[in-house]
Amino acid sequence: MSSVAQVVDQSLGPRPLSEPLQWYAIQTRPKHEKRAVSELEQKGVVTFLPLITEVHRWSDRRKKVQLPLFSCYAFVNIPASVEMRVSVLSTNGVLCFVGSQNKGTPIPDSQIAQIRTLLDSKVPFTSHPFLKVGQRVRIRGGCLDGMEGVLSAQNGANRLVVSVDGIHRALAISLEGYDVEPA
């Protein structure tokens, strides 16, 4: 995956200070991210659609295409008001807010800033499964291929904890150098 990016970010004019803006992820219909963001911008909503440039090959040609970094997702920076949520949800291609009960969970500004920094820096990167400490994971590749356990972190290093339930004991293995996926 290439790290060349274009950020779609439009801003409304001044807003009342009483309405703090928060970032929310919205889920879109497949292949409707750009269209939904364009329509949201026409409504005056601040949006962020991280795009990557990939070279697609067909039998007769190659072409650079811009694709969303996160397929079927875009970000909006809106106040938490019901009217604004309804306006976003009434946009063609928008399915729901991402979060509990489709109400949306605010995303910290720092996480949006990190995505922007990564895309602006043009360093190579690849997608990676989202893993949380405490989640069951499986090692892929190497001599431990297929081994499953619980992801843990100790002193900044990720470890795989393999449990022996019958005797209530466990072993921890360093995951450095191994590819890991959700189990």
Mind describing the biggest β-sheet?
6 strands, antiparallel
Helix count, DSSP H or I runs of 4 or more residues: 3
CATH superfamily of the largest domain: NusG, N-terminal domain
Number of domains: 2
* Distance between the ends: 24 Å
Return the CATH topology of the largest domain.
Alpha-Beta Plaits
SS-based structural class?
Answer: alpha+beta
Number of strands: 11
Q: What number is the mean pLDDT? A: 82
- CA-based gyration radius: 21 Å
Instruction: Output the helix-strand order.
Output: EEHEEEHEHEEEEE
Structural shape: globular
Write the CATH architecture name of the largest domain: 2-Layer Sandwich
Helix content: 10-25%
The first-level CATH class of the largest domain is given as Alpha Beta
Spans of 5+ residues with little confidence (pLDDT < 50)?
Answer: 1-15
Care to describe what's here?
By secondary structure, this protein is of the alpha+beta class. The protein folds into two domains: 5-121, NusG, N-terminal domain (Alpha-Beta Plaits, 2-Layer Sandwich), CATH 3.30.70.940; 136-182. Helices cover 17% and strands 38% of the residues. The protein has three helices and eleven strands. The protein has helices at 33-42, 82-89, 109-121; strands at residues 5-8, 22-28, 46-57, 62-68, 73-78, 94-97, 136-140, 148-154, 157-164, 169-174, 179-182. The strands form two sheets. Strands 1, 2, 3, 4, 5 and 6 form a six-stranded antiparallel beta sheet that branches. A hairpin with a 7-residue loop joins strand 7 (136-140) and strand 8. It starts with a strand and ends with a strand. Residues 1-15 have low confidence and may be disordered.
